[in-house]
Amino acid sequence: MAIDTIIPATMSSSPAPCSRSWSISEDSLRRYVQFASESCIQELLAASDTNRGKDSDGWKILTLDNGVEISKRRSGSLHTFRSRWILRSVSPQQFITVANAIDAAKQWDSDLVEARYIKDLEDNLSIIRLRFGDNSKPLFRNREFIVYERRETMEDGTLVVAVASLPKEIAAGLHPKQSNAIRGLLLQSGWVVEKLEDDSCVVTYVVQLDPAGWLPKCFVNRFNTKLVMIIEDLKKLAQACPSEGEI
């Protein structure tokens, strides 16, 4: 989709991490994010579709343990990772309350140093900065990501949260890169949370990232180890979250 109001920004005298940055109106930014996030949502829904044949869509199961499935699919030179599991006696809203609480994100992702909103475009559409520090695992060490987050409820009640990086020029215009950080690209990620009959839910989490900068391939392709830890932490937080009737 063409963005008709993007204007190259004047470069400051300080070293620029990106060769150029774009100044963009809020309306154009909103329209771009709505367009880009729609594609991400459809990819997430396709990845969560259990009716698809396991061999036809390219997913290969890495682990299947204690009700948690982690699989991956090659996408160009990188892999997309997917995790799926059932949360008993946890409603979709309980889970999303925990997974989508930016101020609580560090409780389930120990590598995260900072997460904060840069801009709210609509009630369900935001721009967020994620920062990972010196002590993070190699895949995330000293990385930052400028991402959009879109939250949707589908007609059948399925909750979808789509998160992906903005193009680097737009991101640089919104938030200049810090000199001590490497700006990675979160190519696609998000949650699909489907309600089950007994007020439980099935959760699908999908992520594909380009961490930027050279890393041994094994660091990127062993992302499933990190997923296992995230899932365990999220399970504990979601099960401790009060249900709607208890609030």
Automatic annotation (TrEMBL):
One of its GO terms (cellular component) is cytoplasm. CDD domains: START. It holds the Pfam family START. It comes from the Eukaryota. One of its GO terms (molecular function) is lipid binding. Transmembrane segments: none annotated. Residues 55-221 form the START domain. This is START domain-containing protein.
